[in-house]
Write a structure and sequence with these properties.
Layout: E1 2-5, H1 11-23, E2 27-32, E3 37-42, H2 48-55, E4 60-64, E5 84-86, E6 89-91, E7 95-101, H3 108-120, E8 125-127, H4 145-158, E9 162-165, H5 172-176, E10 181-184, H6 192-200, E11 205-208, H7 215-226, E12 233-237, H8 255-262, E13 267-269, H9 272-275, H10 278-290, E14 295-299, H11 317-333, E15 337-338, H12 341-346
Parallel strand pairs: 7-8, 7-14, 7-15, 8-9, 9-10, 10-11, 11-12, 12-13, 13-14
Antiparallel strand pairs: 1-3, 1-4, 2-3, 5-6
Helix pairs in contact: 3-4, 6-7, 10-11
Bound molecules: phosphoenolpyruvate and manganese (II) ion (MN).
Phosphoenolpyruvate (PEP) binds near residues 185, 187, 208 and 238.
Length: about 350
């Protein structure tokens, strides 16, 4: 339930309300707006008697049930957009951030060269999987811990923070000791122990939508991460399974406005995995931004033809440069622009 405080409530009244929420077995979540203070009581659905009990406390204006099954992810509980800040830029609340890089880390030369390309054309974050979740056990599985070392070196050289995937709860400590953001992939989007472990790491988490997940289920997965007290979650629409076979997955562009009407969390688009072919990636990226996405995660490789995974969908340098140009032209028409480092640090 959501407890709306009176405008003239005192700090002592707020404190009493928080203590009472805890005493009743709920978790308090305070959202301090400019005009109103909201306190979410997160837990099982309240009885009418319990709501009446809270209504009677001093300082309380209104008690309303939270209508959605997700609570901490909901716009009802946190009406202001969540903004994630990195040294090179921010995402959310109008700030647009682009993460780009190869599908997987393949060699020192490949990731350092990939990072240079990404940085040269103005993306603010590097991507690259050290541990790859592959449908076939015989496909390229990534470089593992060695890949993390190379990503670290790429960060030192390029100045770009990096996001990389974590496949299992027992990998979280290792990956979190290197990465600026943990990626949880589509195939792991309902791996609840992994969601909790990633949340507990305290690192920002980039959560991909499962390929057959409803948007409500997607937010319930985000809720697992948020329930650990970690507020830094990015939601990524990366294509869902439909009857269509022309593309690898069907990009659900509508997920962007729908999610943004339900949640305060930043919403990104991954245009690479749904396209499946490099020639369609830019169109999907621009469609996602036009629909309101707060960022993109795009696959870019110095030599896509040589890539050990997802070769057909990775952009080369010229294609990525053109996409970044188009993004720079499009964003002002939408009243937005690429986030800058200074805004990230001081905004
Ligand atoms: C990836 O980003 O390379 C990846 C495996 O993505 P997804 O989990 O969305 O398939
Ligand atoms: Mn990939």
């Amino acid at each position: 339930m959501l407890i709306v405080l009176k405008r003239d409530h005192t700090q002592a009244e707020l404190q009493t309300i928080i203590e009472e929420i805890e005493r009743q077995g709920y978790r308090p979540h305070v959202s301090q707006g400019e005009e109103t203070t909201l306190v979410g009581a997160i837990g099982r659905g309240p009885t009418p008697e319990l709501m009446e009990h809270f209504r009677a406390l001093p300082g309380v204006a209104e008690v309303i049930p939270i209508s959605k099954p997700y609570k901490l992810a909901s716009l009802e509980v946190s009406p202001r957009p969540t903004v994630l800040r990195f040294p090179t830029g921010a995402t959310g609340g109008g700030e647009v951030l682009i993460a780009a890089g190869p599908c997987g880390v393949e060699s020192r030369e490949q990731i350092l060269s990939g990072a240079r390309i990404v940085q040269r054309h103005g993306a603010q974050m590097l991507r690259g999987g050290a541990f790859k979740p592959r449908t076939s056990p015989y496909s390229y599985q990534g470089m593992g811990a060695e890949g993390l070392e190379l990503l670290k070196e790429a960060r030192e050289q390029s100045g770009l923070p990096f996001v990389t995937e974590v496949l299992s709860p027992d990998q979280v400590d290792l990956v979190a000791s290197y990465a600026d953001m943990l990626q949880i992939g589509a195939r792991n989007a309902q791996n609840f122990p992994l969601l909790l472990a990633a949340g507990e790491s305290g690192k920002p988490v980039l959560l991909k939508r499962g390929m057959s997940m409803t948007l409500e289920e997607f937010l319930m997965s985000a809720e697992y991460i948020l329930s650990t007290g970690n507020r830094q979650v990015i939601l990524v629409e990366r294509g869902i399974r439909t009857f269509e076979r022309a593309t690898r997955f069907t990009l659900d562009v509508a997920a962007v406005p729908v999610l943004k009407s339900w949640t305060h969390l930043p919403v990104w688009i991954d245009p690479s995995h749904p396209a499946g072919r490099r020639e369609w990636v830019s169109a999907l990226a621009l469609a996602g931004l036009a629909a309101g996405a707060d960022g993109l995660i795009v696959e870019v490789h110095p030599e896509p033809e040589q890539a050990l995974s997802d070769a057909a969908q990775q952009l080369n340098e010229a294609e990525f440069a053109q996409l970044m140009e188009r993004i720079r032209s499009l964003l002002p028409a939408l009243g937005r622009r690429l986030s800058q480092p200074s805004e990230a640090l001081h905004g």
